[in-house]
Fold this protein.
Amino acid sequence: MVFTGHKTSSSSLTPPPTTTHFQATTPYDQPYTCDDDKLIQEVDFFKDKKHDLPISDNYDLHKDSTVDLDININTGLHLLTGNTSSDQSVIDDGVSPNSEDKQTKHEITAKAEFERMSGENQQLKEVLNKMIIDYNILEMHIATMMQQKGERKCKEDVNGKGCMPAAPRSVMDLGLAAENDEHSQSIDKDQRLNCLKNDNRDVEEIEQANEATIRRARVSVRARSEASVITDGCQWRKYGQKMAKGNPCPRAYYRCTMAVGCPVRKQVQRCAEDKTILTTTYEGNHNHPLPPAAMAMASTTSSAAQMLLSGSMPSSDGVTNSNYLSTTLLPYSSNMTSISASAPFPTVTLDLTQTPNPLHFQRDQLQLPFLNSSSLPQFFGQPLNNQSKFSGLQMSQNILPQGPPHATLADTVTALTADPNFTAALATAISSIMGGGNGGGSIGNVKNEHVNATYCDNNGNVSN
DNA sequence: CGTTTTTGACCCGCGC
DNA sequence: GCGCGGGTCAAAAACG
């Protein structure tokens, strides 16, 4: 095979000094306090339309004792902590010392407002508690299923080749999952301990094979981009470039350089038919923490890979499991995703190039409900090419948000995963997978403090 | 001068 | 066994 030996011809895939860019935009060793501020500011739980009060979202009653309730209403969760009535009187004492009636009226108004806000705060707490409960139920359900599956596998294999760690093994081995899901890890550990009782040696061999498969699982992302490489928040180093058969555009190979020995690699290639489409294929899982800018993409691809593997692990039929997943997610299918089984390694493709709807989110209003092994945000779609053996999934087009013209891929993924329709589809899909039709469970990693209650619908409306 | 990119060579798997 | 194609290595060149 011959590489393109000319700089001019390869320049289309040669990224600008991405290292400098990433370091400048996402300083890896710096705290992201600004994000926390944004996160608070995004929450607009209950703007008071009745009084048309401007909301001081980020106001802390602990810090300022001179809060005028007629002007600023704290919409955070510290509503109950301020001695607002007395504070109000202090202010009024200076302005109108001779008007006792007016002051009393003001106090009454303030108290009423305070009580109203307390009630709303209580309601919000209840909603939050319900979401947490729903999440815990869902998580327990998943854990139970994993345990049952593991035990069944052990029983089945006790007279055969030993114990197969089965799909959950692959799920939990993902780096992000390891970071974010201790509970699931413990389940996985127990499951594996049970298996080890049966046949230690075979398990190790199988695990090695599985890990190799995991490392080889790929997530391909198709996105329109004029740039030679998509900004996904990670730091990459180019280590090769080749001409691939059937495509005049060279394929570039990158490896993650954010940590020594990080196994993650990616391939970047322009589509032969449409050169505005850039296909980025990710492989492996990061062995290091990720900056927020990279979390969206990394967690999404990792989750996609984990579900892909959980459905196509080296079982007896291999294909059946993936078909099961595809069938399960049928009602929410789309042509934005695909599974490739005939490729050298299992690959799931997320197609972000088909964005029929105009921009319907405001970037600064979104926080990604990070996807990890707990949320299982998988939805597989119709094959984009004839490689796939699986078909039949159509996800409603309107769940796919469109990023701003110069949005990074991470932005797009963030928008996608913040879409309520997206999460709703995932919720139903998970319910379907678990076979219980146990709808109503909340989706998202509640443990993750970055999860934000603000979502946008297709019309750009913010809901909580 | 350290880091990154370029690019020819090499390795490996697969099909014939 | 051979050729083909995908993927990786590593020395040289380029860059900041």
